[in-house]
Amino acid sequence: MIAAFIESDVKKNRTISQWIFNPFYYVAGMKAMAIGVVIIMITGCFAFLKNCRFDALLNFYIRPLKSPLWICISEGLISWLLLSILLLIAGKIISKSRVRIIDVFGTQALARFPYLFIALAIMIPGIIPAFIRFNNNILSGQGASHLFSPDLIAFASLLIIILATLIWMVALMYRAFVVSCNIAGRKAVIAFIICLIIGQIISTIVIYHLPRPVGTQTTVTARTLDPASQANKLITLLSWGEYKTAVNMFDETMKKAVPEEKLKEVWQSILTQCGPYKGQGAVRKGKILNYDVIYITCRFEKNSLDSRISLDSNGKIAGLYFLPAADK
Amino acid sequence: MSQKILPTICPSCKGLLKVKRLTCTSCETSVEGLYDLPVLAQLSGEDQDFILKLIKASGSLKEMASLYGISYPTVRNRLDSLIEKIELIKNQIKKQEN
Question: How far is B61 from chain A (nearest CA, A)?
Fold first, then answer.
């Protein structure tokens, strides 16, 4: 009786670990593909909501600007399709078994389900801003005193989740390859690593060349958004250290007067004087002649500054000043 | 009482065992000789059960997958490894005959 209980317990544990590390033992083909594609799309939606990108086979980035929803979803789908094609070719060459296309694509889609955990983690309120703050403070050499702050906990937690998930996902992709192509041993490992590296390179290139509509990522200058949003973007880009993209928002006169290096210098000197950047405060709008003038309060650790951003009729930034905050 | 397992490998030299004597359980007539074990009889009980179920399922791997509650490639991989085992047994028999 006891032996039967122990045996059923062992069986149960084996089943759970099987579901975690080799779900393809139970699910493959069309069913796995349907589940996997739904998860890829949900992950893309979450990434869109939180300005995150899965912009290559194994990449995860938090970006300062929002990308369109279709790009966020396409990135996951492109990565999945590319790796599946490569592994299918490798399987057809190496395997002695009959390799079904649907099994390779289905299991590879399902293998991406750990990304859902990253997507869920980034939805935790406050975790992304804390992650960004800590990351930027470290990169700019600021805020060493913040090393043991709640931001560190958020940073470390998210980093651990991302790393663990990536390792788990690669392990699942390998298992999916082994099960769907019925190969094992050194051959399987080498073929998988080669496909993974090629997939990573090709997916990076393909996703980088996806057509981006005006108003996103690199082409942020066109006037599709209101001046307050543009001003908001500029401050976000500065806080991220994305000076090159920020300069792209300037008009020609500003570009000459404040090139990338100069802008970086200005922002770094503000950080040195006022401490690490903490976030944005109140936004006020005004108009001087043909220019929209936006005041955004920037909160730093030691004090706050008002940024005065002027935008011309084309939505280009024609002026940028930092003044002592009006309401402290 | 648990089911008896037919030994196929010699516990002493690891060679393949053969049938020396067959007995009728109703009249107790015995036939003696040296008979090879059929290839299928040399497979494990689990493998034999798998083959029987596959025959009952008219060779449909999809049906086998739903019967075992596992995926299609898992069933196909198991069948592939069974084919390999049978090939191995056949080769071993051939070697002993030579």
Answer: 13
Contact call for A107 and B73, based on CB within 8 A: yes
Give the alpha-carbon dihedral of A12, A176, A54, A158, to 10 degrees.
30
Cβ–Cβ of A182/B71 closer than 8 Å? no
Assign 3-state DSSP to chain B and report helix, strand, coil percentages, each to 5.
Answer: 50, 15, 35
A63 conformational bin, left if phi > 0, alpha if psi -120 to 50, beta if neither:
beta
Neighbour tally for A87: CB within 10 Å: 26
Asked if pLDDT for residue A319 goes beyond 80, the answer is yes
Question: Tens of pLDDT along B11-50?
Answer: 999 888 889 999 999 999 999 999 888 888 888 888 999 9
Give the whole-number percent of chain A exceeding pLDDT 70.
Answer: 86
Interface test with B, best of A172, A175, A179 (most B CBs within 10 A): A179
pTM listed for this prediction: 0.73
Residue of A25, A32, A182 with shortest CB distance to B80: A182
Phi, psi of A113 (to 5 degrees): -65, -25
Cβ contact, residue pair A98, B76, below 8 Å: yes
Give the mean pLDDT of A135-139.
67
Is the pLDDT assigned to residue B1 strictly greater than 70? no
* Cβ neighbours of B74 in A, within 8 Å: 24-26, 28, 179
